[in-house]
Structures are given as structure tokens and as C-alpha cells.
Amino acid sequence: MSDKKKNPFQNLLRKMQEHAGTVVGVLSVILIVALLCNWIITARESSAENAPLRNLPKTVKTVLSGAYEINTEKQRTGSIGANASGPQVYRPNYRQPDTHHSRMQSGLWNVGTGKTVYLTFDDGPCENTQELLDILAKYDAHVTFFVTNQFSEYQGMLQKEAAAGHAIGVHTYSHRYERIYSSPGAFWDDFNRMQEIIQAQTGSTTNLMRFPGGSSNTISANYCDGIMSELVKEATEKGYSYCDWNVDSTDADGDPDKDRIAQSIMRGIRDKDIPIVLCHDLNHETIEAMETVLRWGRRNGYRFAALTTDSYMAHHGVNN
Ligand SMILES: [Zn+2]
Question: Closest Cα partner for 305 from 83, 120, 76, 129?
Fold first, then answer.
């Protein structure tokens, strides 16, 4: 009886002894391959190609070496959403380097630790903003709102955004391309109207701004040649920090989908050392994606922060 019970165990021990040599051999091969891969990666990182960047901290390196791909070449001039009465959505479709590399090199930007994420929400406030604020509060996340007056009945949300510790930037009052980009004067008139609303609602003006369509937009060329070059110059002279983005949530693409939006944001955050994520609170799918993004971010040690004028500002580069 006891022999029968013993035998299977003894058999197993014997087999293990017989194959011990093979197991050690396989483990050695795995170890050698892993060491080899590590050596190749280290060698590539310090190759001549990256030599000018070698002395910079890791957080700056990726931003400096990466171009931000906005989309494809096929619609070089970009496009406006079809609905003429609703909010205008502009899709830039070209590749742009981040033109602020040199300023980062000179140490003017606060580059953070590589674990800070800047979510930005454009075109509101609107009917979804309260729901977004509730989700953000739940995760102790702070974001930046680039605001408009397209839905004037929600102006009061500006006060709530500011009170919750979020940053507010001007995204123009009307967000109508044919109006704001018809001349620099028209732009600043529209811009200042929004600034007055922000001041009335929050008690102070803001130094943050985002150009509708981004600073790289070419749609403005339909209304005024060279206007973006002029506006970028004037914005700087007036003391504004304008911020584009280097991660697109894809929530302004046709057929927005909450899973795709969440995936696009999380992939972008992983890829960028200082992710500045373009989102729109106008889109309810984006609000639905937030829970996934914020839960994932918290699990992975990311901090969601509001932009300040000391933050790194992604700049696409001017094309008009
Ligand atoms: Zn916008």
C-alpha cells in the first residue's frame, strides 16, 4: 500500500534528475538572449544618431526626437465639419515637428518627471461639463479647459471649473473660423470677449490660450493670408502662452467611440514624456472614456495636472 503511494513521487523525482541538465541548459540560453537584447538596446540608445541629445534628462529626449503626426498628407488644407450651424471641427492632416525643442533645451520649460499628464478639453463648457467635473473629482484629476461661448447657457460652469482647481484658457468666444481668422483685429476682438466672460465668472483673466484648429491650421489661409504667423507673434507679445497638443484622443473624428478614444489617449500617454491630450467635453463618448483612462492612469502612477504658464507647451509650428 505504502509502496504504491511512494512510487509515483519517486518516479517524478527520478525524471527531474534525468532532465536537470536540459532545464539548466534552456534557462542559460534564455539568460544569454536577454543579456544580448539589453546590450543591443543600450548600444542603440547611445548611438551617434542620438549623440546631441545624450546629455539631456530622459524626459526631454523623447520629446526632442519625436515629431507629432497629426494625420495623413491627403487633406493638406484640413477641413471643417459639415454642420454649418453647429460647432466647427477642424481636422489638421499633416505632420509637424514640435517647434519648441530649442526652448526646452535651454531649460525654459518645466519638463516634469515623465509621469504628468495634461488632459485638455476644448470647445465647452456645455451640457457634458458637469458630468466630466464629477468624474475628475472622483479621481482627484486636474485638467485644462480651453473654453468658448458657443453654449452661453453653460457659462456658469467656468466658475465651477476654476473652483475645482482646473486651468482655464481662451479658445475664442465664437470659434467661427471665418470670423476669428478674417484679420488679427477680428481675432483679438473675439478673443477678448471670451476673456471678459472668464473674468466675470472666475474673478480673473487667463494667460493660457489655444488657437481653434491649433497654431498649425491652414484653414485660416482661406480667410487671411499669413494670419497665424501674425497671431502667434502677437500672442507672445501680449504675454499669452498658447498650447497645441501632442496626443489626439480622436474624439473629433467621425463616429467617436469610447473604447477607441480611451485606447488613443492611453497609447499617447505611454508614447510621450509630456503628453498634452486633445479632448472635447462636447462629445459624450469622451466623458464615457474618462473613467477607463483615469483608472488606468492611477494604477500606473500617472498624475493628471492642469497646465500653468510654466508647463511645457506643445507647438505644432505655423503653416500660414
Ligand atoms: Zn476647438
Answer: 120
